[in-house]
Amino acid sequence: MMPPLTTTGSPPETGYLIEKKQAWFAFAMTFALMLFDYMDRQVIVSLFPHIKAAWNLSDKQLGGLVSIISIVVAMGGIPVALLADRLSRVKSIVVMATTWSLATIYCMFAGNYAQLFGARAVVGLGETGYGSVGSALLSNVFPKRMRGALMGALFAAASLGSVFGVVLGGVIAAKWGWKAAFGVVGVPGLVLALLYLLVRDYKTVALTPKLNQVTQSIGGTLKHIFNTLARTPTLRWICIGQAMQVLVVSAIWSWLPSYLNRFHGMAPDQAGKQAALVILAGAFGGFLWGVVIDRLSIRRPHSKLPMLSLLCLVSLVILTYAFNAPLAGPAQLKLIIAGGFFMTCSVGVVVGVLMDVVHPGLRSTGAAVLSLFQNLLGLAVGPFLVGVLSDMWGLQHAMAVIPAFSILAAAFFMAAARSYEADAAPVSGIALDVTQCATAHAAG
Question: For residue 49, which of 200, 192, 255 has the smallest C-alpha distance?
Answer without folding.
Answer: 255
